[in-house]
Amino acid sequence: MVSPQTLFDKIWNSHVITERPGGDALLHIDRNFVHEGSFHAFGALAKEGHKVRKPRQNFAVADHYVPTVGRERGLDAAEDTDARHMIQLLEENCRVNDIVHFGMNDERQGIVHVIGPELGITQPGLTITCGDSHTSTHGALGAYAFGTGASQLKQILATQCLWLKKPKTLRVTVNGSLAANVTGKDVVLAIIAKIGTAGATGHVIEFAGPAIRGLSIEGRLTVCNMAIEAGGRAGMIAPDDAVYEYLHGREYAPKGADWERALAQWRALPSDEGARFDREVTLDGAALEPMLTWGTSPEEALPVSGRIPDPQSLGDADKRAHALQALAYMDLKPGMALTDIRIDRAFIGSCTNGRIEDLRAAAAVLKGRKSMIPAWISPGSTTLKAQAEAEGLHRIFLDAGVEWRASGCSSCAAMNGDKVPPGLRCASTSNRNFEGRQGKGARTHLMSPAMAAAAMVTGRVTDVRTLLSGN
Question: With the CA atoms of 318, 320, 322 and 327 taken in that order, what torsion angle do they form, in degrees rounded to the nearest 10?
Protein backbone atom coordinates (compact mmCIF):
# COMPACT_ATOMS: atom_id res chain seq x y z
CA MET A 1 0.00 0.00 0.00
CA VAL A 2 1.39 3.41 -1.00
CA SER A 3 1.80 5.85 1.89
CA PRO A 4 -0.13 9.14 1.64
CA GLN A 5 1.88 11.74 -0.28
CA THR A 6 2.01 15.52 -0.27
CA LEU A 7 1.50 17.57 -3.42
CA PHE A 8 5.23 18.27 -3.45
CA ASP A 9 6.15 14.59 -3.03
CA LYS A 10 3.98 13.61 -5.98
CA ILE A 11 5.61 16.13 -8.29
CA TRP A 12 9.14 15.45 -7.05
CA ASN A 13 8.84 11.65 -7.33
CA SER A 14 7.42 11.82 -10.86
CA HIS A 15 10.32 13.97 -12.06
CA VAL A 16 13.32 12.15 -10.55
CA ILE A 17 15.46 10.62 -13.29
CA THR A 18 18.15 9.10 -11.08
CA GLU A 19 19.69 9.51 -7.63
CA ARG A 20 23.22 9.33 -6.36
CA PRO A 21 24.78 8.71 -2.94
CA GLY A 22 24.44 11.70 -0.64
CA GLY A 23 20.81 12.40 -1.45
CA ASP A 24 21.13 14.35 -4.72
CA ALA A 25 18.49 13.66 -7.35
CA LEU A 26 18.53 14.51 -11.05
CA LEU A 27 15.23 16.23 -11.72
CA HIS A 28 13.65 16.75 -15.11
CA ILE A 29 12.61 20.39 -15.66
CA ASP A 30 9.40 20.85 -17.63
CA ARG A 31 9.53 24.62 -18.18
CA ASN A 32 12.37 27.10 -17.83
CA PHE A 33 12.03 30.87 -18.10
CA VAL A 34 14.83 33.29 -18.91
CA HIS A 35 15.03 37.09 -18.85
CA GLU A 36 17.72 39.72 -19.45
CA GLY A 37 19.78 38.54 -16.48
CA SER A 38 20.35 35.13 -18.07
CA PHE A 39 23.23 36.27 -20.28
CA HIS A 40 25.87 34.68 -18.01
CA ALA A 41 24.40 31.21 -18.53
CA PHE A 42 23.99 31.67 -22.27
CA GLY A 43 27.55 32.96 -22.49
CA ALA A 44 28.96 29.99 -20.59
CA LEU A 45 27.01 27.60 -22.80
CA ALA A 46 28.25 29.26 -25.99
CA LYS A 47 31.84 29.25 -24.73
CA GLU A 48 31.64 25.45 -24.52
CA GLY A 49 30.23 25.28 -28.04
CA HIS A 50 26.75 24.17 -26.98
CA LYS A 51 23.22 25.33 -27.71
CA VAL A 52 20.05 24.97 -25.67
CA ARG A 53 19.11 21.28 -25.51
CA LYS A 54 15.30 21.62 -25.62
CA PRO A 55 14.35 25.08 -26.93
CA ARG A 56 10.59 24.41 -26.88
CA GLN A 57 10.66 23.95 -23.11
CA ASN A 58 12.29 27.33 -22.59
CA PHE A 59 10.60 30.74 -22.75
CA ALA A 60 12.16 34.19 -22.67
CA VAL A 61 10.80 37.59 -21.71
CA ALA A 62 12.30 41.04 -21.35
CA ASP A 63 11.05 42.46 -18.05
CA HIS A 64 13.69 43.52 -15.49
CA TYR A 65 15.42 46.20 -17.54
CA VAL A 66 12.71 47.32 -19.96
CA PRO A 67 11.61 50.95 -19.59
CA THR A 68 8.02 51.59 -18.51
CA VAL A 69 7.96 55.17 -19.84
CA GLY A 70 8.32 56.14 -23.50
CA ARG A 71 7.88 52.62 -24.84
CA GLU A 72 6.62 54.02 -28.15
CA ARG A 73 10.29 54.89 -28.78
CA GLY A 74 11.25 51.23 -28.55
CA LEU A 75 14.73 50.39 -27.32
CA ASP A 76 15.70 54.07 -27.33
CA ALA A 77 13.48 54.52 -24.27
CA ALA A 78 16.04 52.51 -22.25
CA GLU A 79 18.38 55.35 -21.33
CA ASP A 80 20.99 53.14 -19.68
CA THR A 81 23.49 51.68 -22.16
CA ASP A 82 23.96 48.45 -20.20
CA ALA A 83 20.19 47.93 -19.99
CA ARG A 84 19.83 48.35 -23.75
CA HIS A 85 22.64 45.89 -24.33
CA MET A 86 21.07 43.27 -22.05
CA ILE A 87 17.70 43.58 -23.77
CA GLN A 88 19.37 43.15 -27.16
CA LEU A 89 21.53 40.28 -25.92
CA LEU A 90 18.49 38.34 -24.74
CA GLU A 91 16.90 38.71 -28.15
CA GLU A 92 20.08 37.50 -29.86
CA ASN A 93 20.51 34.52 -27.52
CA CYS A 94 16.92 33.50 -28.22
CA ARG A 95 17.42 33.82 -31.97
CA VAL A 96 20.56 31.68 -31.93
CA ASN A 97 18.92 29.02 -29.75
CA ASP A 98 15.43 29.12 -31.32
CA ILE A 99 13.68 30.06 -28.06
CA VAL A 100 10.27 31.73 -27.96
CA HIS A 101 10.93 35.34 -26.96
CA PHE A 102 8.32 37.79 -25.66
CA GLY A 103 10.28 40.95 -26.42
CA MET A 104 9.50 44.60 -25.75
CA ASN A 105 7.22 44.91 -28.78
CA ASP A 106 5.35 41.63 -28.30
CA GLU A 107 1.73 42.10 -27.21
CA ARG A 108 2.26 39.21 -24.75
CA GLN A 109 5.29 40.84 -23.08
CA GLY A 110 5.19 41.30 -19.34
CA ILE A 111 6.80 40.26 -16.09
CA VAL A 112 7.95 36.65 -16.35
CA HIS A 113 5.95 35.49 -13.31
CA VAL A 114 2.83 37.18 -14.63
CA ILE A 115 2.87 35.98 -18.23
CA GLY A 116 3.70 32.35 -17.32
CA PRO A 117 0.30 31.74 -15.72
CA GLU A 118 -1.44 34.23 -18.04
CA LEU A 119 -0.38 32.33 -21.16
CA GLY A 120 -1.01 28.90 -19.66
CA ILE A 121 2.67 27.97 -19.77
CA THR A 122 2.43 27.40 -16.02
CA GLN A 123 0.39 24.28 -15.26
CA PRO A 124 -0.26 21.95 -12.29
CA GLY A 125 2.23 19.16 -11.70
CA LEU A 126 5.11 20.76 -13.62
CA THR A 127 8.62 21.57 -12.49
CA ILE A 128 9.35 25.19 -13.40
CA THR A 129 12.57 27.16 -13.06
CA CYS A 130 13.84 30.67 -13.74
CA GLY A 131 16.92 32.63 -12.78
CA ASP A 132 14.82 34.72 -10.40
CA SER A 133 13.94 34.02 -6.77
CA HIS A 134 10.24 34.85 -7.18
CA THR A 135 9.72 31.88 -9.48
CA SER A 136 7.84 30.46 -6.48
CA THR A 137 4.87 32.48 -7.82
CA HIS A 138 4.00 29.72 -10.30
CA GLY A 139 3.36 27.29 -7.44
CA ALA A 140 -0.04 28.92 -6.99
CA LEU A 141 -1.27 26.74 -9.86
CA GLY A 142 0.03 23.55 -8.27
CA ALA A 143 3.53 23.47 -9.79
CA TYR A 144 6.91 23.00 -8.11
CA ALA A 145 8.57 26.26 -9.15
CA PHE A 146 11.84 27.69 -7.87
CA GLY A 147 14.62 30.13 -8.70
CA THR A 148 18.08 29.13 -9.87
CA GLY A 149 21.57 30.60 -9.99
CA ALA A 150 23.58 31.15 -13.17
CA SER A 151 25.41 27.80 -13.00
CA GLN A 152 22.13 25.94 -12.43
CA LEU A 153 20.53 27.82 -15.31
CA LYS A 154 23.37 26.78 -17.58
CA GLN A 155 22.83 23.14 -16.54
CA ILE A 156 19.13 23.40 -17.37
CA LEU A 157 19.75 25.05 -20.74
CA ALA A 158 22.27 22.36 -21.61
CA THR A 159 20.34 19.30 -20.37
CA GLN A 160 16.79 20.30 -19.31
CA CYS A 161 17.66 18.61 -16.00
CA LEU A 162 19.03 19.76 -12.64
CA TRP A 163 20.76 18.09 -9.70
CA LEU A 164 19.01 18.96 -6.43
CA LYS A 165 18.68 17.86 -2.83
CA LYS A 166 15.09 17.19 -1.83
CA PRO A 167 13.76 19.97 0.43
CA LYS A 168 11.66 19.38 3.54
CA THR A 169 7.97 20.27 3.64
CA LEU A 170 6.08 22.89 5.65
CA ARG A 171 2.31 23.23 5.57
CA VAL A 172 0.94 26.66 6.48
CA THR A 173 -2.79 26.39 7.14
CA VAL A 174 -4.83 29.58 7.25
CA ASN A 175 -8.21 28.84 8.83
CA GLY A 176 -11.42 30.82 8.75
CA SER A 177 -12.57 33.40 6.23
CA LEU A 178 -10.85 36.68 5.44
CA ALA A 179 -12.67 39.90 6.27
CA ALA A 180 -13.52 42.42 3.57
CA ASN A 181 -10.49 44.25 2.15
CA VAL A 182 -8.05 41.70 3.59
CA THR A 183 -6.11 40.25 0.67
CA GLY A 184 -3.53 37.65 -0.26
CA LYS A 185 -0.82 40.26 0.33
CA ASP A 186 -2.04 40.73 3.90
CA VAL A 187 -2.13 36.96 4.43
CA VAL A 188 1.44 36.39 3.30
CA LEU A 189 2.81 39.38 5.22
CA ALA A 190 1.11 38.02 8.34
CA ILE A 191 2.67 34.59 7.73
CA ILE A 192 6.15 36.06 7.29
CA ALA A 193 5.71 38.25 10.37
CA LYS A 194 4.85 35.10 12.34
CA ILE A 195 7.56 32.69 11.16
CA GLY A 196 10.25 35.17 10.07
CA THR A 197 12.30 35.48 6.89
CA ALA A 198 14.21 32.31 7.81
CA GLY A 199 11.14 30.47 9.06
CA ALA A 200 10.84 28.20 6.03
CA THR A 201 14.53 27.80 5.16
CA GLY A 202 15.14 24.43 3.53
CA HIS A 203 11.42 23.79 3.07
CA VAL A 204 8.82 23.86 0.35
CA ILE A 205 5.71 25.56 1.72
CA GLU A 206 2.25 24.24 0.93
CA PHE A 207 -0.33 26.91 1.73
CA ALA A 208 -3.64 25.37 2.73
CA GLY A 209 -6.85 25.96 4.65
CA PRO A 210 -10.20 27.64 3.97
CA ALA A 211 -8.77 31.17 3.75
CA ILE A 212 -6.25 30.08 1.09
CA ARG A 213 -8.86 28.17 -0.91
CA GLY A 214 -11.09 31.24 -0.74
CA LEU A 215 -8.49 33.40 -2.48
CA SER A 216 -8.75 34.20 -6.17
CA ILE A 217 -6.02 32.89 -8.45
CA GLU A 218 -4.46 36.37 -8.34
CA GLY A 219 -4.44 36.26 -4.54
CA ARG A 220 -2.85 32.81 -4.54
CA LEU A 221 -0.15 33.99 -6.94
CA THR A 222 0.65 36.82 -4.52
CA VAL A 223 0.95 34.42 -1.58
CA CYS A 224 3.24 31.99 -3.40
CA ASN A 225 5.28 34.88 -4.82
CA MET A 226 6.40 35.85 -1.32
CA ALA A 227 7.07 32.32 -0.07
CA ILE A 228 10.70 33.05 -0.85
CA GLU A 229 10.59 36.00 1.58
CA ALA A 230 9.93 33.49 4.37
CA GLY A 231 13.04 31.58 3.35
CA GLY A 232 11.06 28.91 1.48
CA ARG A 233 12.53 27.01 -1.42
CA ALA A 234 9.14 27.24 -3.11
CA GLY A 235 5.50 27.93 -2.36
CA MET A 236 2.63 25.75 -3.55
CA ILE A 237 -1.16 25.60 -3.41
CA ALA A 238 -3.08 22.49 -4.43
CA PRO A 239 -4.89 22.91 -7.75
CA ASP A 240 -8.69 22.96 -7.73
CA ASP A 241 -11.59 23.89 -9.98
CA ALA A 242 -10.65 27.58 -9.77
CA VAL A 243 -7.24 26.77 -11.27
CA TYR A 244 -8.68 24.58 -14.01
CA GLU A 245 -11.19 27.29 -14.95
CA TYR A 246 -8.39 29.88 -14.98
CA LEU A 247 -6.22 27.81 -17.33
CA HIS A 248 -8.89 26.59 -19.73
CA GLY A 249 -8.48 28.09 -23.20
CA ARG A 250 -5.20 29.88 -22.55
CA GLU A 251 -2.64 29.91 -25.36
CA TYR A 252 -0.29 27.21 -24.05
CA ALA A 253 -2.86 25.19 -22.09
CA PRO A 254 -3.75 21.70 -23.36
CA LYS A 255 -6.58 21.55 -25.88
CA GLY A 256 -9.28 18.99 -26.71
CA ALA A 257 -8.52 15.43 -25.62
CA ASP A 258 -5.18 16.61 -24.19
CA TRP A 259 -7.10 18.89 -21.83
CA GLU A 260 -9.21 16.00 -20.52
CA ARG A 261 -6.11 13.87 -19.96
CA ALA A 262 -4.33 16.72 -18.21
CA LEU A 263 -7.36 17.42 -16.04
CA ALA A 264 -7.46 13.80 -14.86
CA GLN A 265 -3.78 14.00 -13.88
CA TRP A 266 -4.19 17.37 -12.16
CA ARG A 267 -7.10 16.15 -10.03
CA ALA A 268 -4.82 13.49 -8.52
CA LEU A 269 -2.19 16.04 -7.40
CA PRO A 270 -3.53 17.50 -4.10
CA SER A 271 -1.94 16.17 -0.92
CA ASP A 272 -3.48 12.90 0.24
CA GLU A 273 -5.44 12.67 3.45
CA GLY A 274 -2.95 11.79 6.18
CA ALA A 275 0.12 12.98 4.24
CA ARG A 276 2.89 13.96 6.65
CA PHE A 277 4.69 17.31 6.56
CA ASP A 278 7.99 17.98 8.30
CA ARG A 279 6.45 21.04 9.98
CA GLU A 280 3.02 22.60 10.45
CA VAL A 281 2.04 26.23 11.10
CA THR A 282 -1.49 27.59 11.50
CA LEU A 283 -3.02 31.09 11.38
CA ASP A 284 -6.51 32.40 12.03
CA GLY A 285 -7.49 34.11 8.80
CA ALA A 286 -10.57 35.71 10.35
CA ALA A 287 -8.34 37.69 12.75
CA LEU A 288 -6.19 39.26 10.02
CA GLU A 289 -6.19 42.96 9.15
CA PRO A 290 -4.59 44.88 6.29
CA MET A 291 -0.83 44.62 6.82
CA LEU A 292 2.24 46.68 5.99
CA THR A 293 5.94 46.66 6.75
CA TRP A 294 7.56 49.26 8.99
CA GLY A 295 11.20 48.10 8.79
CA THR A 296 13.65 46.82 6.20
CA SER A 297 12.64 43.16 6.18
CA PRO A 298 9.31 41.60 5.14
CA GLU A 299 9.03 40.05 8.62
CA GLU A 300 8.97 43.54 10.15
CA ALA A 301 5.27 43.84 9.38
CA LEU A 302 2.22 44.71 11.46
CA PRO A 303 -1.53 45.22 11.08
CA VAL A 304 -2.36 48.77 10.02
CA SER A 305 -3.86 49.38 13.48
CA GLY A 306 -0.48 48.69 15.11
CA ARG A 307 2.36 50.80 16.44
CA ILE A 308 6.10 50.70 15.77
CA PRO A 309 7.58 48.23 18.29
CA ASP A 310 10.27 49.02 20.82
CA PRO A 311 13.33 46.99 19.74
CA GLN A 312 14.10 46.29 23.39
CA SER A 313 10.82 44.35 23.62
CA LEU A 314 11.98 41.85 20.99
CA GLY A 315 13.30 38.69 22.61
CA ASP A 316 15.89 37.75 19.99
CA ALA A 317 19.18 39.70 20.10
CA ASP A 318 19.60 39.60 16.32
CA LYS A 319 16.07 40.89 15.81
CA ARG A 320 16.65 43.68 18.32
CA ALA A 321 19.80 44.75 16.48
CA HIS A 322 18.06 44.60 13.09
CA ALA A 323 15.09 46.57 14.37
CA LEU A 324 17.35 49.32 15.72
CA GLN A 325 19.11 49.58 12.38
CA ALA A 326 15.80 49.50 10.51
CA LEU A 327 14.27 52.28 12.60
CA ALA A 328 17.32 54.45 12.02
CA TYR A 329 17.17 53.87 8.25
CA MET A 330 13.40 54.35 8.07
CA ASP A 331 13.51 57.36 10.44
CA LEU A 332 10.75 56.01 12.67
CA LYS A 333 10.28 56.00 16.44
CA PRO A 334 9.04 53.21 18.75
CA GLY A 335 5.42 53.65 19.77
CA MET A 336 4.49 55.64 16.66
CA ALA A 337 1.13 54.67 15.12
CA LEU A 338 1.56 53.25 11.64
CA THR A 339 -1.20 55.56 10.42
CA ASP A 340 0.98 58.53 11.40
CA ILE A 341 3.63 57.59 8.83
CA ARG A 342 3.82 60.09 5.98
CA ILE A 343 4.11 58.65 2.45
CA ASP A 344 5.93 60.52 -0.37
CA ARG A 345 5.55 58.15 -3.33
CA ALA A 346 3.42 55.13 -4.26
CA PHE A 347 3.91 52.26 -6.70
CA ILE A 348 1.46 49.58 -7.78
CA GLY A 349 2.80 46.73 -9.90
CA SER A 350 5.44 43.94 -9.87
CA CYS A 351 5.11 40.16 -10.07
CA THR A 352 3.55 40.32 -6.60
CA ASN A 353 0.65 42.67 -7.26
CA GLY A 354 0.46 43.75 -10.90
CA ARG A 355 -2.52 41.65 -12.03
CA ILE A 356 -6.03 42.68 -13.06
CA GLU A 357 -7.54 42.07 -9.62
CA ASP A 358 -4.86 44.33 -8.12
CA LEU A 359 -5.61 47.09 -10.63
CA ARG A 360 -9.34 46.82 -9.97
CA ALA A 361 -8.75 47.05 -6.22
CA ALA A 362 -6.68 50.20 -6.67
CA ALA A 363 -9.29 51.71 -8.99
CA ALA A 364 -12.04 51.11 -6.41
CA VAL A 365 -10.13 53.33 -3.96
CA LEU A 366 -8.99 55.96 -6.47
CA LYS A 367 -12.32 56.47 -8.23
CA GLY A 368 -13.50 60.02 -7.67
CA ARG A 369 -10.41 60.89 -5.62
CA LYS A 370 -7.09 62.63 -6.29
CA SER A 371 -3.60 61.42 -5.41
CA MET A 372 -1.78 63.78 -3.06
CA ILE A 373 1.63 62.35 -3.97
CA PRO A 374 3.52 61.33 -7.12
CA ALA A 375 2.39 57.78 -7.91
CA TRP A 376 2.57 55.33 -10.79
CA ILE A 377 1.04 52.03 -11.82
CA SER A 378 2.82 49.51 -14.03
CA PRO A 379 0.62 46.54 -15.05
CA GLY A 380 2.13 43.07 -14.95
CA SER A 381 1.82 42.48 -18.67
CA THR A 382 1.00 44.24 -21.92
CA THR A 383 -2.09 42.03 -22.19
CA LEU A 384 -3.22 43.15 -18.75
CA LYS A 385 -2.61 46.76 -19.72
CA ALA A 386 -4.97 46.35 -22.66
CA GLN A 387 -7.55 44.61 -20.47
CA ALA A 388 -7.40 47.37 -17.84
CA GLU A 389 -7.83 50.00 -20.55
CA ALA A 390 -10.80 48.12 -22.02
CA GLU A 391 -12.37 48.22 -18.55
CA GLY A 392 -11.64 51.94 -18.22
CA LEU A 393 -9.38 51.50 -15.20
CA HIS A 394 -6.63 53.60 -16.72
CA ARG A 395 -9.02 56.54 -16.97
CA ILE A 396 -9.67 56.32 -13.22
CA PHE A 397 -5.92 56.30 -12.56
CA LEU A 398 -5.23 59.23 -14.88
CA ASP A 399 -8.14 61.26 -13.50
CA ALA A 400 -6.67 60.70 -10.02
CA GLY A 401 -3.33 62.10 -11.21
CA VAL A 402 -1.57 58.73 -11.17
CA GLU A 403 0.86 57.78 -13.95
CA TRP A 404 -0.21 54.83 -16.11
CA ARG A 405 2.97 53.18 -17.34
CA ALA A 406 3.92 50.23 -19.53
CA SER A 407 4.57 46.71 -18.31
CA GLY A 408 7.80 45.70 -16.60
CA CYS A 409 9.36 45.08 -13.21
CA SER A 410 9.44 48.86 -12.78
CA SER A 411 10.02 50.12 -9.21
CA CYS A 412 10.25 46.68 -7.62
CA ALA A 413 13.99 46.50 -8.25
CA ALA A 414 14.67 49.98 -9.67
CA MET A 415 16.81 48.55 -12.47
CA ASN A 416 15.11 50.52 -15.23
CA GLY A 417 15.09 54.11 -14.00
CA ASP A 418 11.88 53.78 -11.96
CA LYS A 419 13.54 54.79 -8.68
CA VAL A 420 12.41 56.41 -5.45
CA PRO A 421 14.59 59.41 -4.48
CA PRO A 422 16.83 59.12 -1.39
CA GLY A 423 15.08 59.68 1.93
CA LEU A 424 11.56 59.44 0.51
CA ARG A 425 8.99 56.85 1.56
CA CYS A 426 7.21 54.68 -0.94
CA ALA A 427 4.01 52.71 -0.42
CA SER A 428 4.84 49.73 -2.63
CA THR A 429 3.00 46.59 -3.69
CA SER A 430 6.27 44.80 -4.45
CA ASN A 431 7.93 42.06 -2.40
CA ARG A 432 11.15 43.37 -0.86
CA ASN A 433 11.90 46.34 1.36
CA PHE A 434 15.59 46.07 2.22
CA GLU A 435 17.76 49.19 2.24
CA GLY A 436 18.09 50.65 -1.26
CA ARG A 437 15.75 48.17 -2.93
CA GLN A 438 13.83 50.94 -4.71
CA GLY A 439 16.82 53.24 -5.05
CA LYS A 440 19.70 54.39 -2.88
CA GLY A 441 18.33 55.74 0.40
CA ALA A 442 14.71 54.97 -0.55
CA ARG A 443 12.37 53.82 2.22
CA THR A 444 9.87 51.12 1.28
CA HIS A 445 6.64 50.12 3.00
CA LEU A 446 5.17 46.94 1.52
CA MET A 447 1.37 46.72 1.37
CA SER A 448 -1.55 45.67 -0.82
CA PRO A 449 -2.72 47.61 -3.91
CA ALA A 450 -5.78 48.94 -2.08
CA MET A 451 -3.61 50.11 0.82
CA ALA A 452 -1.15 51.75 -1.59
CA ALA A 453 -4.03 53.53 -3.30
CA ALA A 454 -5.29 54.70 0.09
CA ALA A 455 -1.84 56.15 0.79
CA MET A 456 -1.96 57.97 -2.55
CA VAL A 457 -5.15 59.86 -1.71
CA THR A 458 -4.22 60.68 1.91
CA GLY A 459 -0.44 61.09 1.74
CA ARG A 460 0.06 58.77 4.71
CA VAL A 461 -0.44 55.18 5.77
CA THR A 462 -4.21 54.73 5.88
CA ASP A 463 -6.49 51.85 6.77
CA VAL A 464 -8.22 51.35 3.42
CA ARG A 465 -11.29 50.05 5.22
CA THR A 466 -12.03 53.57 6.45
CA LEU A 467 -12.15 54.81 2.85
CA LEU A 468 -14.32 51.98 1.58
CA SER A 469 -16.65 51.61 4.56
CA GLY A 470 -19.44 53.38 2.70
CA ASN A 471 -19.10 51.25 -0.44
Answer: 180
Could you give the CA distance from residue 190 to residue 301 in angstroms, rounded to a whole number?
Answer: 7
Q: What percent of the chain has pLDDT over 70?
A: 99
The H-or-E segment that residue 292 falls in is strand 291-293
Q: Which fold has domain 7-165?
A: Aconitase; domain 3 (3.30.499)
Contacts of 449 (CB under 8 A, 6+ apart): 183, 185, 348, 353, 358, 359, 361, 362, 429
> What are the sequence ranges of the domains in the chain?
7-165, 168-287, 293-468
Whole-number Å distance between alpha carbons of 252 and 3: 34
> Has residue 283 got a pLDDT over 80?
yes
One-letter amino acid of 349? G
Confidence of residue 404 (pLDDT cuts 50, 70, 90): very high
> What pLDDT is attached to residue 79?
82
Could you please state the CATH topology (level 3) that the domain comprising 293-468 is classified under: Aconitase; domain 3 (3.30.499)
**How much is the pLDDT for 1?**
63
256, HSE (Cβ side, Cα atoms, 13 Å): 1
Distance CA 249, CA 197 (A): 37
Alpha-carbon gap, residue 469 to 471, rounded angstroms: 6
94 vs 58: CA distance, rounded Å: 10
pLDDT in tens, 166-175: 999 999 999 9
Q: Contact, 334 vs 308, CB < 8 A?
A: yes
Q: In the chain, what is the straight-line distance between the N-terminal and C-terminal CA atoms, in Å?
A: 55
Per-residue pLDDT tens digits for 418-467 = 899 999 999 999 999 999 999 999 999 999 999 999 999 999 999 999 99
- Using one digit for the tens of pLDDT, what is the confidence trace for 70-90? 998 988 888 889 989 999 999
Task: Please say if the pLDDT value at position 258 is more than 60.
Answer: yes
- Cα separation, 173 vs 213, in Å, equals 10
- Total count of residues recorded for the chain: 471
7-165 and 168-287 share one fold: no
Exposure on the CB side of residue 31, measured as CA atoms within 13 A: 26
Q: Give the model's pLDDT for residue 470.
A: 57
Please give the Cα distance from 109 to 104 (Å, whole number).
Answer: 6
Cα separation of 307 and 327, whole Å?
13
